[in-house]
Each structure stands twice: as structure tokens, then as C-alpha cells.
From TrEMBL:
Record keyword Cell inner membrane present: no
UniProt-listed Enzyme Commission number(s): 3.5.1.88
HAMAP family (alphabetical): Pep_deformylase
Catalytic activity: N-terminal N-formyl-L-methionyl-[peptide] + H2O = N-terminal L-methionyl-[peptide] + formate
Catalytic residues (UniProt): 136
Cofactor(s) this protein cannot do without: Fe(2+)
Protein name: Peptide deformylase
Organism: Acrocarpospora pleiomorpha
Gene name of the record: def_3
Length: 162
């Protein structure tokens, strides 16, 4: 398991670099990311969240499990959907659990990238999977879900973090 980085850590505000080596180390990193995500009861985890400024993320929502290396995100359905969203990197000071807030996201997206062996992949998603892809992609760009919230709501959340 890797240590999850929290709001305030500069790695979370820095755009991640592309993965250039599709080797055993990458496969081990992806396995460690899944283990970290599961132990933290998350549904997605991006490289920067564990201090690895590389463009990759893992996810598991319902029956959809996978990873994407060097993802590109395309908005297929720009209709805004506002639902509760939280982040393992934005825990409450008292509970240690993610703090949630209604967060706007696009209704449908396609993510294109590569698997751990360097094979191309493309996944079209709606609902929670689309939300997850957008959330994790934001991490790779140095953004957090609180950046999408009204200023007052974001401020309230940040006051509750460690």
C-alpha cells in the first residue's frame, strides 16, 4: 500500500508527466494503486494521489474495473450532472473520511489511453463511471473536485481538512 497524499501537498496541484516505460515497475505500481484504493474504500485513484506524478489511474465501479495509462478525455455529452462527490485526498479532519459536496460533471465521456502493456484502449462512460473518469483525469491535470465547487462551499470543505 502507498501513502495517500492530502490537500496541501504540491504533487496534487502539479500536472502529471506521461508514462514512458511500460514495464514490470508500471505493472507493480498499478497493483499497488489498486491495493491502496481498496484499503481506503475508494473507487478511483490517480498517480499523484500517492505521490507519483505520472499520468495513470485505476478504478473500480460496480462491475467495471480497470486502469488507464496516459489518458485523454473527451466530453461526449456536455449536459451537466450534479451529484455528491468526494476524494480520498480531501479527508475530514475529524473522521479521516472523504468530504462530499454536490459537484457538476459532464454526463458522458470517452477516455482513451493505454493499458499496462501499452495496448491502446477506449472506454465510453456515463453515470458514476463517467464521473470517476473526470475526477481522476482532473488529478492528472493538477485539479481537485473542490476547484469545481462554488467558492464558499470549497472554503467550507477546506476548513474541515487536516
Amino acid at each position: 500500500m502507498r501513502e495517500i497524499r492530502y490537500l496541501g501537498d504540491p504533487v496534487l496541484r502539479t500536472a502529471a508527466e506521461p508514462v514512458t516505460e511500460f514495464d514490470r515497475d508500471l505493472r507493480r505500481l498499478i497493483d499497488e494503486m489498486f491495493a491502496t484504493m481498496y484499503l481506503a474504500n475508494g473507487v478511483g485513484l490517480a498517480g499523484p494521489q500517492i505521490g507519483v506524478p505520472k499520468r495513470l489511474f485505476v478504478y473500480e465501479i460496480t462491475n467495471r474495473k480497470g486502469h488507464v495509462v496516459n489518458p485523454e478525455l473527451t466530453i461526449d455529452d456536455p449536459d451537466e450532472v450534479v451529484e455528491e462527490e468526494g476524494c480520498l485526498s480531501v479527508p475530514g479532519r475529524e473522521t479521516g473520511k472523504p468530504l462530499y459536496a454536490p459537484t457538476p460533471r459532464a454526463a458522458g465521456v470517452t477516455v482513451r489511453g493505454f493499458d499496462q502493456l501499452g495496448r491502446p484502449l477506449a472506454i465510453t462512460a456515463r453515470g458514476m463511471l463517467a464521473r470517476c473518469f473526470q475526477h481522476e483525469f482532473d488529478h492528472l491535470e493538477g485539479r481537485l473536485y473542490v476547484d469545481r465547487l462554488p467558492r464558499d462551499t470549497a472554503r467550507q470543505i477546506m476548513l474541515q481538512t487536516p
